Amino acid sequence: MRFERRQDVSLPALAIAPFAAVAVTLVLCAGLIAMAGVNPPTAYAQMLKGAFGSRLAITETLTRAVPLMLTGLAAAVAFRARLWNIGGEGQFYIGALVTAGLGHNLLSGLPMPLAIAVLMAASMAAGAVLLVVPALMRLRFGIDEVVTTLLLNFIVILFVGLMVEGPLKDPMAFGWPQSVPVAAGLRLPDLVPRSRLHVGLIIAVVVAALVWLLQARTVFGAETRAAGLNPRAAAFAGVPLTATLVKVAALSGGLAALAGTIEVLGPTGYVTTTMSPGFGYAGIVVAMLAALHPMGVVAAAIFVATVFVGADSMSRATGVPSFIADVIVSVSFLTMLTALLFTTYRLRR
Q: Which letter does DSSP use for residue 218 in this model?
């Protein structure tokens, strides 16, 4: 038995693959829920109720989805060009830290739209540097970017801990390790009154649409796809591989950092070393569930947010540990990889 690459990949098969992966995941995880002594359909119904059963639940689910959309876009952009960005978590935190540092009082005198634009640009530049350096190390010295970007996550989080315990520590936090808050006038407006949902949701969806247009309708997008499909053929056709990968790295790192900025300007207002429950890593799952399609990332992010938010309610109602959310997300990643494998290849005897 061997795998043989399909000559033509079916577009309907690619479209169905994420739904099939999610369906298989729910079936597989139903066994674990049953082992906990709970009827799986009842548990899944409670999960949906916890994520969408009330105005508060819906707004919390969408709030949770916002950073996942941006970190998912960051992973999708990089993976499409075969640049393996595992550093979304660190890029998220560096964007958040830059936002808190500049947004506390340095930009408070600027008009709100301009100040927010400056914060976003500054944080995206910091995130871009955090990925461009590993990309250049790969291009110049052949160093695996999976290792460098993964290790940078821990370095950045330790650096954030140093800053929130030192120069950026909030003196009004009663000893709690958190940064100084951004100025109140720089916080993103609420999208729904008396909720945590903010206009960052609109920003994330617009960014996803812009990334789709960039990939589908520009020369850079074509070069990115070519570099990801066959680097040697792309170079032979005249694609500047080094410049393309550096641009991809800058865009990917900037998107993950933008997620940190929006999280600080939106629901949190300040930075702690625990503000992310793994947005950078979950973004990889989101990107794969979306088959690296920017608009699919929006739907995949909402699915992952539904699982995480709904699992808490399901746990309270049925007694199933909320850790089942991590299992569902992880299994969905594996089933999606399997679905993509059989979509792209066929088994031959």
A: S
Q: CA-CA distance, 99 to 112, in Å (whole number)? A: 14
Contact status, residue 227 vs residue 241, Cβ threshold 8 Å: yes
Give 264's DSSP letter: I
**58 contact partners, CB below 8 Å, separation of at least 6:** 51, 52
**What is residue 108's predicted lDDT score, i.e. its pLDDT?**
63
Domains of the chain, earliest start first = 2-348 (1.10.3470)
Using DSSP, state whether 106 is helix, strand or coil.
coil
- How far apart, in whole angstroms, are the C-alpha atoms of residue 281 and residue 144? 18
Helix (H, G, I), strand (E, B) or coil at 348: strand
Is the model's pLDDT at 7 over the cut of 80?
Answer: no
Q: What angle do CA 142, 147, 294 make, to 5 degrees?
A: 95
For residue 99, which amino acid is it?
T
Number of alpha carbons in the 13 Å side-chain half-sphere of residue 217: 6
**What's residue 52's pLDDT?**
94
CA 135, 136, 142, 147 torsion-angle sign: negative
pLDDT tens-digit readout, 15-58? 888 899 999 999 999 999 999 889 999 999 999 999 999 999 99
115: phi then psi, degrees, rounded to nearest 5: -65, -45
Q: Helix-strand-coil percent breakdown of the chain, rounded to 5? A: 75, 5, 25
Among 101-110, 140-149, 155-164, 301-310, the least confident range? 101-110
